[in-house]
Amino acid sequence: MNILLHICCGNCAIYPVKMLREHSHQLTGYFFNHNIHPYQEYNRRLETTREYALKVELPLLVDDQYLLEEFLRNVAADPDQRCSYCYRSRLTKTARKAAEEGFEAFSTTLLYSRYQKQDAIIDFGRRLAEEYQLAFIGQDFRPGWNEGIRISKEMGLYRQQYCGCIYSEKDRYQPRKNAQAS
C-alpha cells in the first residue's frame, strides 16, 4: 500500500518505518505537529525529522505551521484532555492530506510511543479512515521501543525529553512534591 505516515518526531519514526517497509509498503512521511512547545523545540524536532528522512530516503511532506495559539485555545480549558485533541487534530490533518494526495492509507508514529493512548489513537484513526475512504494502519509499534531508541542513538539523532506540548514539558521538568512533606 501507499501510506502517508504522520511523524511526531524522527526518533519515533524509526521502528514504524522499518516495520512498514518490511511489509513492502510505500511510505511518505508527514510532519504536522502544532502542539510542540517551545518554538525552538518545534524547530529542533522538525530538523531531526528531516535529517532522519534524508538518511533513510523517506519522502517527507512538511506542514510547517506553528499553530501554538490554536492548540492552546483548544486545550487550555481542560488540559487533562489535551491528548485527545492532539490526536484528533493531527490525525485529521493527516487523513485529509492522504486523501488529497491519493494515498491508499495513513498511519502515525504515535503508535510507537509507550506514553500515548493507543486505543484512542486507533479508534480515531479508524473513524477517519471511514470518513476519508482510506485504510488506517493501526499497528502497535511499541514492541520496537528499545530497538528504536538504540538505532536513534547510533544515528546520532536529537532525542527529546518530553512528548511535545507545554503541559508535557511541565510534567517532565517540574519537581514533584513529596506527598509526605508537610
Task: Please write out the topology.
Layout: E1 2-6, H1 10-22, E2 26-31, H2 39-55, E3 60-62, H3 68-75, H4 82-101, E4 105-108, H5 118-132, E5 135-136, H6 145-155, H7 166-173
Parallel strand pairs: 1-2, 1-4, 2-3, 4-5
Q: Give the strand order of the largest sheet, numbering strands 1, 2, ... along the chain.
A: 3-2-1-4-5
Order of helices and strands: EHEHEHHEHEHH
| Distinct helical segment count | 7
* Annotated CATH topology: Rossmann fold
CATH architecture: 3-Layer(aba) Sandwich
Percent strand: 5-15%
Largest sheet: number of strands, sense, barrel closure = 5 strands, parallel
- Residue-averaged pLDDT, rounded? 89
Q: Give the total of beta strands.
A: 5
* Gap from first CA to last CA: 59 Å
Please identify which CATH superfamily we are dealing with. Answer: HUPs
Description of the molecule:
The chain is α/β, with parallel strands linked by helices and about 180 residues long. It has one domain (about 1-175): Rossmann fold (3-Layer(aba) Sandwich), CATH 3.40.50. The protein is built from seven helices and five strands. A five-stranded parallel sheet has the order 3-2-1-4-5, with helices on both faces. Helix 1 (about 10-20) links the parallel strand 1 and strand 2 (about 25-30). Helix 4 (about 80-100) runs parallel beside helix 5 (about 120-130). The chain is globular and about 50 Å long. The model has no long low-confidence stretch (mean pLDDT about 90).
